[in-house]
């Protein structure tokens, strides 16, 4: 319900009278200061940083009594007049946006919004000072063009996950430094229902009380899981957002974080180059897709790649790549499943197939592709080799035991703790070396294992190296030289902190085409300087 303009003007006059009574008023510098951080009683400020200066700031506070941290998002406070004016502008702009051509780019939309706000203020007969105009435009752009209350959270590079479990409950985050932490943000029930519907619509998916569960990819690439109402979540609507990194994880990131050693990456590089199929295992948020995406940079530049996912997560800098995503149909029509995409991929004659996650009947087709010479790489929820094999051989996959012989190995990811710090590590990398003809058991060779006592990786003798020597006609000296060169290159890239996935992709591609030049640029020159 709109407040009549005469009452809006009266509220403005009352606000002006209150602000001019007393002292001389704020200086020009203070006029444009939108935020004044304060530490509540009983709390200590641990950290403070801007998300978008001067509009949004984060305070990390510690409750002195409970010793629990809190993530406090600060945004510009609104006076009663500004809040009422904001509501009136929001309602009037909704009508204008529906009637006029807004533009496609975010810049065009922001320009349209700002122009219409100034037009409406002139029509209202109201003057708004510079600070008030900045606040109005911030909230209108936030609520119209972005993600409302959680816009600033989606801009915070420290945040991995955003989780709202129910109405009137605080949103929780996973912060790269402060880990799982409660925020000062929450939604009322009707507000949360409307927000969840809007999130899904902006992600190109429909959610309703008839279909209250949705998985989707948001416009920025983040992964959304949402529920509506109390049908499947008894406390009310909920959503979880797994943040999309603007810059994908690369092999250098993995070494820098200690997730893998250079020796593991050299092994994976040779495995991928020589088309040895692998599945990356682990629990939720252990980094399965991240390591799959990172090592995909080792795929040769001329090879054709097809990636198949439910929600888009794989990002490559490769000239010959088809990125396919499943599609949800309407009333059963037009649905495109992982199985459909995988069948189509085999007709596209790819050399490499990347599957976001194996969980259904598409696994049989994936293993058939392995058997016919396609290199395939995928992820699966499992915490050990045996649990992965059990999943593959049980419902709903029911993979014939003999087909496991086409798979080269498993790489198992795990979340570990070092003090209070949560880390991701490659727990173990194993080769499947065949099926025992008498017992029918899978024979395995453990190549790498993480040692928790000193946070190192122990290596045994890889069977794959012997296979590659036979297939490529290498001598033992040639193999050792190749292993040494690749390790030296990866170590040099780590020392130079080369983490941009586009740059690294070019380096690995050039390595296949002009190895001597790459080594002289990154390795020999580095050694000469030392």
From TrEMBL:
CDD domains: VirB11-like_ATPase (cd01130)
Domain PilB3-like N-terminal intervals: 29-76
Domain named Bacterial type II secretion system protein E: residues: 205-451
Lineage top rank: taxon: Archaea
Protein family according to the UniProt entry: Belongs to the GSP E family.
The protein's name in its UniProt record: Type II/IV secretion system ATPase subunit
InterPro entries: P-loop_NTPase, PilB3-like_C, PilB3-like_N, T2SS/T4SS_dom, T4SS_GSP_E_ATPase
Pfam families per record: PilB3_C, PilB3_N, T2SSE
Domain (PilB3-like C-terminal) ranges: 457-526
GO molecular function: ATP hydrolysis activity
């Amino acid at each position: 319900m709109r407040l009549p303009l005469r009452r809006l003007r009266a509220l403005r006059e009352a606000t002006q009278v209150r602000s001019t009574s007393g002292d001389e008023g704020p200086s020009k510098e203070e006029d444009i200061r939108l935020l004044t951080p304060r530490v509540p009683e009983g709390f200590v400020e641990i950290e403070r940083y801007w998300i978008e200066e001067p509009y949004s700031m984060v305070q990390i506070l510690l409750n002195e009594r409970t010793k629990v941290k809190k993530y406090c998002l600060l945004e510009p406070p609104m006076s009663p007049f500004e809040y009422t004016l904001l509501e009136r502008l929001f309602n009037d702009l909704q009508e204008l946006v529906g009637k006029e051509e807004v533009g496609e780019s975010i810049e065009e939309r922001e320009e349209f919004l700002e122009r219409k706000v100034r037009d409406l203020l002139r029509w209202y007969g109201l003057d708004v000072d510079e600070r008030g105009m900045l606040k109005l435009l911030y909230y209108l752009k936030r609520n119209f063009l972005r993600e409302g209350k959680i816009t600033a959270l989606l801009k915070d590079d420290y945040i991995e996950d955003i989780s709202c479990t129910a109405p009137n409950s605080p949103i929780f985050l996973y912060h790269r430094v402060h880990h799982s932490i409660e925020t000062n943000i929450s939604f009322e029930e009707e507000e949360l229902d409307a927000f969840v519907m809007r999130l899904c619509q902006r992600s190109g998916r429909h959610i309703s009380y008839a279909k209250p569960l949705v998985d989707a990819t948001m416009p920025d690439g983040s992964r959304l899981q949402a529920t509506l109402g109390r049908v499947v979540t008894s406390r009310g609507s909920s959503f979880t957002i797994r943040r999309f990194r603007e810059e994908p994880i690369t092999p250098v990131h993995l070494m820098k974080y200690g997730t893998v050693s250079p020796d593991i990456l050299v092994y994976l590089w040779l495995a991928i180059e020589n088309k040895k199929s692998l599945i990356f295992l682990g629990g939720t948020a252990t980094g399965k897709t991240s390591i799959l995406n990172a090592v995909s940079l080792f795929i040769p530049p001329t090879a054709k790649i097809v990636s198949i996912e439910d929600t888009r997560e794989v990002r490559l800098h490769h000239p010959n790549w088809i990125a396919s995503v499943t599609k949800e149909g309407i009333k059963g029509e037009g649905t495109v499943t992982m199985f459909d995409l995988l069948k189509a991929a085999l007709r596209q004659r790819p050399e490499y197939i990347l599957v976001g996650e194996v969980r259904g009947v598409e696994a049989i087709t994936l293993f058939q592709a392995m058997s016919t010479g396609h290199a395939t790489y995928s992820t699966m929820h499992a915490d050990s080799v045996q649990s992965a094999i059990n999943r593959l051989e049980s419902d709903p996959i029911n993979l014939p035991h003999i087909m496991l012989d086409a798979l080269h190995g498993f790489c198992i990811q795990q979340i570990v703790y070092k003090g209070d710090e949560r880390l991701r590590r490659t727990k173990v990398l194993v080769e499947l070396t065949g099926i025992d003809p008498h017992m029918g058991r899978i024979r395995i060779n453990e190549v790498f294992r993480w040692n928790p006592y000193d946070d190192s990786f122990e290596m045994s003798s890889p069977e794959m190296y012997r296979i590659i020597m036979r297939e490529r006609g290498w001598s033992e000296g040639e193999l050792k030289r190749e292993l040494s060169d690749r390790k030296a290159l990866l170590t040099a890239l780590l020392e130079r902190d080369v983490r941009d996935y586009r740059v690294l992709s070019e380096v690995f591609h050039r390595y296949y085409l002009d190895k001597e030049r790459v080594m002289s640029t990154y390795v020999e020159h580095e050694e000469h300087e030392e």
